[in-house]
Known about the structure:
Blueprint (H helix, E strand, L loop, with lengths): L1 H31 L6 H21 L6 H24 L9 H23 L8 H5 L2 E4 L2 E4 H23 L1 H11 L1 H6 L4 H23 L9 H16 L4 H21 L4 H15 L14
Antiparallel strand pairs: 1-2
Amino acid sequence: MLKLIAILLDGLSYSAWLFLVAVGLTLIYGVMRILNIAHGAFYAIGAYACATALGLYYGAGWSGAGAFLVMGLTAIVTGIVVGLAVERGILRRLYGRDEVLMVLVTYALFLILEDATKMIWGVESYFVYQPYAYFGFIDVGGLPYQVYDLLVVAIAIATGLALWLWLTRARMGRLMIAVVADREISAAMGINVPRIFAITFAIGTVLAALAGVVTAPKIAVAPGIGVEVIILAFAVVVIGGLGSIPGAALGAVIAGFARAVSVHLAPEFELFAIYAVMAIVLAIRPYGLFAAQGERKI
């Protein structure tokens, strides 16, 4: 019974984290048709920025729940600044080009940003454990469970709901849906497509930075953390269907629980569990669970 509870708790936590990591990637692809390899670098920048901001916060003698406000502001500011700089400075000049070229451009950008983080923050590890330890533990069926992990689950759910409301209720979100349906007709009807692209890329970058920010208190922030993330994010969105936000949620749940089951029942297969699920899904549905051939969804 304890093992089942552990699988459920670990699967829930990891699924929430995977959704936060992947949702920005699938949003950008759904609207802009760009498979953004630099997403992993944005995640890493968010984590480093969080470590720096919290270091200043605690270094000034402050403590308490104000750290979470600092984390939220760090994700928003970092994502908007980096996202708009990349979109306006690089990607805007390449719209309409072949998708393979865009992949190569974002891959090159990923390598550049990886080296830039080393130049800015060095190669030493950063530790900001205080927010993770702030709420302590609770007892779930006889197992101690970190409350911070529940907070991450809540953030993932809130993020998914906020995106759904944005896309279905907000005017700007409905304009995004129109651009997804047909970019050329949207432009002909007077929609400012470059502006929609800029907003979309900024939101996607904020989401990547948010994933890095919420992860920073749980890990050692060190060079290379963005590499694994982009691979996992790609696996999740492929399982769910590229460009589908519900698909990203379902893909995160499937991948998260597959990993949890493998960790507790067959640890030797942990590294392969998510990719095995991806291979099985693609063998059955080559375009993912929520995507059909030739469709663009969000």
